[in-house]
Design brief:
single chain; alpha+beta; Immunoglobulin-like; 2 domains; 3 helices; 8 strands; globular
């Protein structure tokens, strides 16, 4: 269970404990708040209103994938150690892979100079070798880059694709066969 789900579950337990105490006939609505404050669970404190609980859950579930920095589809690598974003330009057949930080927002350069990926679309599979893009402004270069590109005429006018990253090494961990559906949400 990830950290966000764990915190949410602890908050739910506290809320249930507070409700049980209030229903037991202790001392009215303030008894629930008092029970929540004395919770043995620790830092979790039950929200006092349904709106507060809903707002808190919404904030926790809103993700980086809702706002990909390059307009592509984003997936987490591991337990949010890093993220991969795939963006395709159908008019040119160009595909970009961006390795992003744990929040899915900023770049996270990696040591490998290329990324091998399979792109599946319209019943065919194209294997591409993505090369690192040098960027003088950020100092990124092959062997220390977060942006990789490849191009194929087979991807011209593509409206949907499944990109399978065969191998990506990030911060000492290797991720293989990472599936990214483009645009986001397609399967």
């Amino acid at each position: 269970m990830d950290v966000m789900a764990s915190r949410w579950a602890r908050g739910l337990v506290v809320l249930l404990m507070a409700g049980a105490t209030a229903c037991a006939g202790d001392a009215g609505p303030d008894a629930a708040a008092a029970a929540a404050a004395k919770s043995p669970i620790g830092e979790a404190v039950a929200p006092r209103e349904v709106e507060e609980a809903s707002a808190r859950v919404f904030d926790q579930e809103e993700t980086h994938a809702d706002h990909p920095p390059h307009g592509g589809a984003v997936v987490a690598l591991g337990s949010h150690l890093a993220h991969a974003e795939v963006a395709i330009v159908p008019d040119s057949g160009e595909v970009s892979i961006y390795v992003l930080d744990g929040e899915g927002v900023g770049p996270s350069p990696i040591a490998q100079p290329t990324i091998l990926a399979e792109v599946q679309t319209s019943g065919r599979t194209v294997t591409l070798e993505f090369t690192a893009v040098a960027d003088e402004g950020s100092g990124e270069r092959p062997g220390n880059a977060s942006h990789f590109t490849a191009r194929s005429d087979d991807l011209l006018r593509t409206s949907e694709a499944t990109v399978i990253l065969k191998w990506v090494g990030v911060k000492g961990q290797v991720f293989s066969d990472v599936v990214v559906d483009w645009p986001a949400g397609t399967e």
